[in-house]
Design brief:
mainly alpha, about 90% helix, DUF3265 domain-containing protein
Length: about 20
């Protein structure tokens, strides 16, 4: 469960980085 949450957080951070870049 925690592991899945970590992956979700990582993915969200990646998306946020892309949005900020764009």
């Amino acid at each position: 469960m925690i592991r899945n949450a970590w992956h979700f957080y990582y993915a969200l951070r990646l998306v946020f980085k892309v949005v900020c870049r764009g």
